[in-house]
Amino acid sequence: MEDMENKAYIAKTRTKYDYEAIKKFNQVHSYSRVSGWIVSIIALFILIFAIVDTSFESYYRILIIAISLVWFVEFLTLPIISAKRAYKTSRLSQDAEVEVEYYDDSLKMITLKSGEKVGETVIKYAEIYKIKETKEFMYIYISGNQSVLAGKTNVEGNLEKAKDILQEKVKKYKRK
Question: How far does CA 56 lie from the centroid of its chain?
Answer without folding.
Answer: 42
